[in-house]
Design goal:
The protein is mostly helical. It has 5 helices and no strands. It starts with a helix and ends with a helix.
Length: about 120
């Protein structure tokens, strides 16, 4: 079951993925693969990265499985594109009323057990 909290974690996951990639690159650039400790640290970070990618894929997969195109776009704007303002989402979706898109979002989650 996908919850609003899990969907909201996509923003954090995407930041985590970016920073973890940077950490791995920095380690390799700074130390190369000269020591076993650095190699093990990189492997641990790559495992951590794989877990974050899997969680990200699960959330994106859930969003992409939404049949209604408008609802799917609302979810992509809110969670993937990190648009936090319902008014901005309404404008981007071609609507004028922020409460319409928020209600549509919440109704979908409620119907599918996420609220």
């Amino acid at each position: 079951m996908m919850t609003k909290e899990k969907l909201s974690s996509l923003r954090t996951l995407r930041r985590e993925i970016t920073r973890t990639k940077q950490r791995i690159a920095n380690l390799k650039r700074q130390y190369g693969e000269r020591s076993l400790a650095v190699v093990k640290t990189c492997e641990a970070l790559e495992n951590y990265l794989a877990i974050a990618h899997a969680e990200e894929a699960e959330i994106i997969g859930y969003i992409s499985s939404i049949e209604d195109a408008q609802t799917r776009e609302l979810f992509m704007l809110r969670y993937y594109d990190c648009v936090s303002s319902w008014q901005r989402i309404a404008f981007m979706a071609g609507e004028h009323d922020e409460s319409y898109v928020r209600r549509k979002h919440d109704a979908y989650l409620k119907k599918n057990g996420g609220l």
